[in-house]
Amino acid sequence: MPIATRAFAATAADAPLSPYSFDRRDPGPDDVAIEIKYCGVCHSDLHVAKNDLGNSRYPIVVGHEIAGVVTAVGANVSRFKEGDRVGVGCMVDSCRTCEACREGLEQYCVPGMTQTYGSPDPKGKEVGQAITQGGYSDRITVDQNYVLSIPDSIPLDAAAPLLCAGITTYSPLKTWGVGPGSKVAVIGLGGLGHMAVKLAAAMGAEVTVLSTSDRKKADAERMGAKHFLINSDKAAMQAAAEKFNLIINTVSATHEISSHINLLARDGTMVMLGLSTEGMPVFAVPLLWRRRRVAGSLIGGIRETQEMLDFCAEHGVACEIEVIAPDQINEAYQRMEKSDVRYRFVIDMGRFDKAA
Ligand code: NAP
Ligand code: ZN
Q: CA-CA 20 to 30 A from 163: which of 62, 180, 191, 290?
């Protein structure tokens, strides 16, 4: 029996999200059926709902920061049982055979991972879905290999954004070897940025936040940042030159990056996480003069995502959230576009009835 699912969907780039009903597949032998309790609101959802990347297909249910409870499992599922607290992030499948998949880096799957929303969905055909549909909904069915366990100590609402904002910042911090003594700067204190600050601080780094105004200064310090800079303050930027081993750039729009390169120490790296589609000039001389690098990073693999969840439980790290009802999503998007987010909106699916 297909699983009746309530959702909020984007139907066109310029239309508000609106109530939408569809069916999820009944769990197959390797599947876990999940009742979604909470879903975080990532800026990538907004990019896709508004077709910022130019390839959105409608109607689409976005959302890839899913936290919920298992309602049923298929015959081959041994790792999960009914009642377990689980999460689903940005992907629900991958080829499992390419070099990236075999290394546990499924996000870089060569033929391409199946993203939680907007990917062709061969398993959706039986219920009339051509593309995968994401987490702004109350049910989902996912292969067990792409489901994470949420540690008991992390409340489900605060855990949801870890599935994207958490892993997307944890992965580069680990890749670039952040630990005690590292000097890390985080550009943009939004959903990703605030997780980068908390995770880097928990790893023992000295953290600096670069923001567009001083509105978030007290919050940044409370989250573990030692220093706070406004990136349009030329004198402060000059004084911070050559200070950082790693810069985590979470800005969600096209912006000026060359002045930030000068903040890197010798051999320092700036990791680009934002999905801006326009080019941003980088000049060669400041790079070669200090052997600096500009890099990119995409979410994280399944194994690393579980490691991140366990790290958060061990270190008492969780997201700072503002819980909303499903029908408040359009207002949340408007606030996100103004960088007015403290620090992640999370949709409470228990408040669907109000929207029906
Ligand atoms: P968010 O919560 O909206 O935060 C973005 C922050 O960037 C804002 O809070 C603001 O920080 C800063 N910002 C926004 N516009 C700016 C501008 N024009 N100039 C300078 N700073 C600006 O977004 P998010 O959910 O953290 O996502 C950030 C970006 O990462 C998005 O593009 C998203 O699609 C992308 N993303 C990438 C991955 C990946 O795997 N690489 C995963 C998830 C998300 P201040 O208020 O501090 O200035
Ligand atoms: Zn995301």
A: 180
pLDDT tens, position by position, 203-261: 999 999 999 999 999 999 999 999 999 999 999 999 999 999 999 999 999 999 999 99
Which ligand is closest in space to the CA of residue 335?
1
pLDDT tens for 316-352 read 999 999 999 999 999 999 999 999 999 999 999 999 8
Q: Classify domain 166-296 at the CATH superfamily level.
A: NAD(P)-binding Rossmann-like Domain (3.40.50.720)
Ligand 1 centroid, distance to 70 Cα (angstroms) = 31
* Pair of tokens at residue 352: 């669907």
Ligand 1 within 6 A of 189 CB?
yes
pLDDT band at 356 (very low <50, low <70, confident <90, very high): very low
275 lines ligand 1 (CB under 6 A): yes
In the chain, domain spans:
3-164+320-355, 166-296
Q: How far is the CA of 274 from the centre of ligand 2 (A)?
A: 10
pLDDT digits (tens, 9 = 90+) for 38-55: 999 999 999 999 999 999
Please state which CATH number belongs to domain 3-164+320-355. Answer: 3.90.180.10
Q: In sequence order, what DSSP letters do the residues of 290-333 get, joined into one string?
A: TT-EEEE--S--HHHHHHHHHHHHHHT----EEEE-GGGHHHHH
Give the ligand whose atoms come closest to the C-alpha of residue 62.
2
